[in-house]
UniProtKB/TrEMBL annotation:
This is Methyltransferase type 12. GO terms for molecular function: S-adenosylmethionine-dependent methyltransferase activity. One of its GO terms (biological process) is methylation. It holds the Pfam family TPMT. It comes from the Bacteria. The keyword Iron-sulfur does not apply. The keyword Methyltransferase applies. It comes from Rhodococcoides trifolii. Keywords: Methyltransferase, S-adenosyl-L-methionine, Transferase.
Length: 221
């Protein structure tokens, strides 16, 4: 039987050695579609840390963006609450599988690279969900990914970041490369402010909320 973590680690190492930090995602999803690998983050139920966070944000309206959506489980849940949901992944195979799993979906699924997002997404979303995508990327591209994700949050909008926890000074062989608190805090920018950073010990996860306070007073009127 295939080992999900080993599959991801093998493909990531091959891709990163070629200085291609994101190419391994399509390789992994392709091998999974062929029955030769398992996607380690594939789930049949929405992420509980996302679910409890977004349920508390009623009324559920506006535009939502899901980063690195994979097969779409979280995206479908968010859309079911009433959000106009866009979800993207760098893997065409992942997006094709999401369409196959949810043929009646109202989610707008797109193929996109977090390191080169469409200009039309700049400050366009009221809710942005980033769960374990950045931690799957090597350190040398991580800040570019963080900046790109932060740039999609509309004035008055919120960003949720979910990531594994890494203690300061601890080296890990990834993927994944869980984030330190400093790396979580780096999602704050000239526009975004951290409003809550939780250490969810039971899940060994960070759950952090950031808000784009530029124009937030107008957005709340």
């Amino acid at each position: 039987m295939s080992n999900p973590d080993a599959d991801a680690s093998r493909l990531a190492a091959e891709s990163i050695n070629k200085r291609d930090p994101t190419g391994w995602f399509e390789q992994l999803y392709t091998e999974a579609a062929e029955g030769r690998a398992i996607v380690p983050w594939d789930r049949t139920a929405p992420n509980a840390l996302i679910g409890s966070w977004i349920r508390d944000r009623a009324p559920h309206r506006g535009r939502a963006l899901v980063v690195g959506c994979g097969y779409g489980t979280d995206s479908e849940f968010i859309a079911s609450l009433g959000y106009d949901t866009t979800a993207f992944d760098i893997s065409q195979t992942a997006i094709d599988t999401a369409h196959a799993r949810f043929p009646e979906s109202v989610v707008q699924y797109e193929v996109a690279d977090v390191l080169d997002l469409p200009q039309r997404w700049l400050r366009a979303f009221d809710v942005v969900i980033e769960s374990i995508t950045v931690q799957s990327m090597p350190v040398w591209v991580r800040q570019n990914a963080v900046a790109a994700i932060a740039s999609t949050v509309a004035p008055g909008g919120s960003l949720l970041v979910v990531s594994g926890i890494r203690e300061d000074g601890v080296e890990v062989e990834g993927p994944p490369w869980p984030l330190t608190r400093e790396e979580i805090e780096s999602f704050a920018s000239t526009a975004l402010t951290a409003t809550r950073i939780e250490r969810v010990t039971s899940e060994n996860r960070w759950r952090a909320t950031f808000m784009n306070e530029l124009g937030s007073e107008m957005a709340g009127d």
